[in-house]
């Protein structure tokens, strides 16, 4: 604050450079004011617009489909693999039409989606790959970091995500797209008052970037703690389905998500009331049935998405959990599962 530079300035430039080096080596990172802006601007910079279709999961936060709709294109919802909750390549293949321009998998809960399958589908059909990596900072598919597969990938820096800048997003881009995102975030100009296109104000502030830079130095240790917490839960939970991790993927446990066979909401209530364990259902309504996005998906049925939406429950896995917390979570979940069985 004392520097006198508060809006986008040297802190943003430093954050972009450090983020690119650490998270998506070889790509350019462009900072914006939210993950949603990042997806929206990435799509526009990639030339997505009216008449185009982009295939996305329905089992995700609404920002994924919203960004496609905001770009003027149509989100086309495909089903998920019931084990990983990530987009199912077979369902994506079935959803491809002559208007399909891209597939945009989400690395849901922090586990990388099957990028080998989406990359080869994209080659086969001549479409692009974009990544919604909002929940997956540092996750990998076959050793390659998420955010480096598609022509762009977006990380959210919202406070609930694995690292934060207060609000913010980081777009990992191939060079052709980076220039477009930089233009669109700043009224269409890179050089002041030489506006090249019609753009937005989607800039990150130096204050937010300064927070993000410090968070970035802590991410690796936090991720390791999340993974250790997840391993403890994996080893000790009984009577529920614990997260499946694809052997080609790493999981950074933005969420630790179990499946509860019946009465998920009752399970959640019992955990809270009897064991003081908070939990969350992400996401209870599939995007293709939301009032906002349903018009894009008339009559669509996604059976695996429906099962997940009514059965998933995310338990605390964050790096500040104590040994006592973990023991309470294990005891609560095991007792509640047993009582329900
Ligand atoms: C959080 C999130 C976003 C949006 O990020 P914001 O920074 O909140 O705008 C997009 N997609 C997914 C999957 C998310 O979880």
From TrEMBL:
The modification N6-(pyridoxal phosphate)lysine is found at residue 161. Coiled coil: none annotated. Keywords: Aminotransferase, Pyridoxal phosphate, Transferase. One of its GO terms (biological process) is polysaccharide biosynthetic process. It comes from the Bacteria. The active site is at 161 (proton acceptor). The keyword Transferase applies. Its cofactor is pyridoxal 5'-phosphate. The keyword Disulfide bond does not apply. InterPro entries: DegT/StrS_aminotransferase (IPR000653), PyrdxlP-dep_Trfase (IPR015424), PyrdxlP-dep_Trfase_major (IPR015421), PyrdxlP-dep_Trfase_small (IPR015422). GO terms for molecular function: pyridoxal phosphate binding; transaminase activity. PANTHER family: DTDP-4-AMINO-4,6-DIDEOXYGALACTOSE TRANSAMINASE, TRANSAMINASE. Belongs to the DegT/DnrJ/EryC1 family. This is DegT/DnrJ/EryC1/StrS family aminotransferase.
């Amino acid at each position: 604050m004392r520097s006198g530079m508060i809006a986008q300035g040297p802190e943003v430039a430093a954050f972009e450079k450090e983020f690119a080096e650490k998270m998506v080596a070889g790509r350019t990172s462009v900072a914006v004011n939210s993950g949603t802006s990042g997806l929206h601007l990435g799509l526009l910079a990639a030339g997505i617009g009216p008449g185009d279709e982009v295939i996305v999961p329905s089992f995700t936060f609404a920002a994924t489909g919203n960004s496609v709709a905001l770009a003027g294109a149509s989100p086309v919802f495909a089903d998920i693999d019931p084990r990983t909750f990530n987009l199912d390549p077979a369902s994506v293949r079935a959803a491809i039409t002559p208007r399909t321009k891209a597939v945009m998998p989400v690395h849901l809960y922090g586990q990388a989606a099957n990028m080998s399958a989406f990359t080869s589908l994209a080659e086969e059909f001549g479409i692009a790959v974009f990544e919604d990596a909002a929940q997956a900072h540092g996750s990998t598919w076959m050793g390659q970091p998420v955010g480096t597969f598609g022509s762009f990938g977006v990380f959210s820096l919202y406070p609930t995500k694995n690292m934060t800048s207060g609000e913010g997003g980081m777009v990992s881009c191939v060079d052709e797209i980076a220039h477009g995102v930089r233009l669109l975030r700043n009224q269409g100009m890179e050089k002041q008052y030489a506006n090249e296109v019609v753009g937005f104000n989607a800039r990150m502030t130096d204050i937010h970037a300064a927070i993000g830079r410090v968070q970035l130095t802590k991410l690796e240790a936090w991720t390791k703690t999340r993974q250790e917490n997840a391993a403890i839960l994996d080893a000790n939970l009984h009577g529920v389905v614990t997260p499946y991790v694809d052997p080609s993927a790493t999981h950074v446990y933005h969420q630790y998500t179990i499946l509860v066979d019946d009465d998920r909401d009752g399970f959640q209530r019992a955990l809270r009331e009897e064991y003081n364990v908070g939990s969350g259902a992400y996401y209870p309504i599939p995007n293709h049935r939301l009032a906002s996005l349903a018009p894009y998906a008339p009559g669509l049925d996604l059976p695996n998405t429906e099962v997940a939406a009514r059965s998933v429950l995310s338990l605390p896995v964050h790096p500040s959990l104590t040994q006592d917390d973990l023991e309470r979570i294990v005891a609560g979940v095991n007792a509640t599962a047993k009582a329900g069985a």
